[in-house]
Design a protein that fits this description.
single chain; alpha+beta
Length: 107
């Protein structure tokens, strides 16, 4: 089973040195356990573009799809054997990065 763990924040690249050290340790533990697929930080939504080319419309909007105080500032992709492990990892990731983490299973 594969899961996306989204880090929720109100800023991009806001982690302190201690938080980055905890994130690095968490990432190492994911790799050692064989759960790791990929992880990345994501730039602020203010730097995004939304494209709508349905039926050739050609619309481009600079900025996020949805304006909100909180947004996805990073993510982990993990592969685990069950939901209980994914839940545990999301809780550990939230503690490591000191942010909310949203857990979603991939199809």
């Amino acid at each position: 089973m594969q899961f996306l763990m989204n880090v929720i924040d109100s800023q991009s690249e806001s982690a302190t040195g201690d938080e980055m050290a905890a994130i690095d340790a968490f990432n190492d533990s994911l790799r050692e356990a064989g759960f790791w697929i990929r992880a990345h930080g994501i730039h602020s939504p203010s730097q995004s573009k939304v494209f709508d080319n349905r039926q050739g419309a050609g619309h481009v909007h600079n900025g996020p799809l949805i304006e909100n105080d909180e947004f996805i500032s990073g993510f982990w992709l993990v592969e685990v054997s069950d939901l209980a492990t994914a839940d545990r990892l999301a809780a550990e990731g939230s503690k490591a990065c000191n942010r909310k983490v949203e857990l979603r299973q991939l199809h």
